[in-house]
Amino acid sequence: MRPTRKFAVVLVLAAGVELTLLWGLVRDRRSRPYHVDRAALSGWTVVLGAPEDPWVVALQPPASLTESLFQQVSAKIERPLVPPRHAALPLVVRPEHTDALQGVYGAMDIERIAKQAIAGESTFEPVCIGHRVLPAGASAKAGDSQGSGSEELFFLAVNSPAFDALRMELQPDFPEHAGIGVYDPGALTPVLPIATTDTDFSRWWPIRLDRVSDCEAQVTVE
């Protein structure tokens, strides 16, 4: 092998090592734990969705929680991020309400049931900071969370027995009266959107958390 070819090979190998190390540093930075205030994990309020929201009824956390998490995500990500217009954890999203619930429950009915099921003192246990990537031209359903996508979503996943109980309670006794679709209580898990790389949050819902592929970083409670 000529010296020039050897030198070229060395340069290529060195560049590959450098890129690998750089990617490792990025992943390490993203996976560092996030921090939340314990007081911000309770006192969430049930709210009706605005026409532009992807949800019909949701839980609104203290503003301090969403602002803090957005700042923490922004500090780790080297792309411009957009916070949700209304930061809230969806309880029922519009497509499932339109297709499988509206024949039985109106938005105000769900709001009333949610207020009874999720008391003000309910506490939400952080699971992780989740991350999904949306490949260009693809849907954001489970299974699309990996790959070289053009858009990204960051969210806080939580555990909430009250959320699970509410979703089960909304199961229609007579589905044929509720709509043309079938309501699935497990189709939506408790996820609070934090930031995305574009302004269209509706494209990501519904989200059923996959801890293996979705969770990117731990959350510590202080």
Could you walk me through the main structural features you see in this protein, from its secondary elements to its overall organization?
The chain has about 220 residues and is of the alpha+beta class. It has 2 domains: about 1-30; about 35-220, no CATH class. It has 7 helices and 9 strands; from the N terminus they run αβββαβααββααβαββ. The protein has helices at about 5-30, 65-75, 95-100, 105-115, 160-170, 175-180, 210-215; strands spanning about 35, 45-50, 55-60, 90-95, 125-135, 150-160, 190-195, 215, 220. A 4-stranded antiparallel sheet has the order 7-6-5-8. Strands 2-3-4 form a 3-stranded antiparallel sheet. It has a two-stranded parallel sheet with strand order 1-9. A hairpin with a 6-residue loop joins β2 and β3 (about 55-60). The radius of gyration is 21 Å and the shape is globular. The termini are far apart.
Cα-atom Rg, whole angstroms? 21 Å
Q: Which regions are unreliable across 5 or more consecutive residues at pLDDT < 50?
A: 7-27, 142-148
- Strand ordering within the main sheet: 7-6-5-8
Number of strands: 9
Shape: globular
